[in-house]
Amino acid sequence: MKSIMTKQETIRSENLFHLLEDYSEDLPQEKKESILEQVNKIAVVHTDIDTLDNYWCSMSLDEFCDSLAIQPIEVGTISETEINEGLRLIWETEPPEQMYYLEKYTKVIEDYYKRSEGTISDMLFWSNYSEKDINTVINALKSNEELIFEFDGSVCGKSIKLQ
Fold it and tell me: 72 preceded by cis ω (within 30°)?
């Protein structure tokens, strides 16, 4: 993912990595709090001790540091065309680049389309839209169409309305 990160994001991620590479959930609470304070001074996305203790369940240290270092695009700073381009990048790239664009654009996309429930991540990974082309996805976001979420190929009964 570093190849598409900005220089500032890369430096931030590397600094976080060096700070956290010896972190352990077995550390004394006082030491954990000290590390957390240092992490949150560097990170764009602030975290907590529980997340520091458990991030490894779903990602590597490198991926975790990247996720804390990526500067999301601010709401109200880009056009609908740029928002939809971000959505296209999320939909059409593969990990780890996909995760970068997801971190970068999710907040602004969800604010623009005023999603009251669910997330772009839910739509990408769990919905019946995960295999659709980007224009179908954008049209669904613009409408009040109900999305059915699937797990292991079967409907799990979870649905959202886009508003």
Answer: no
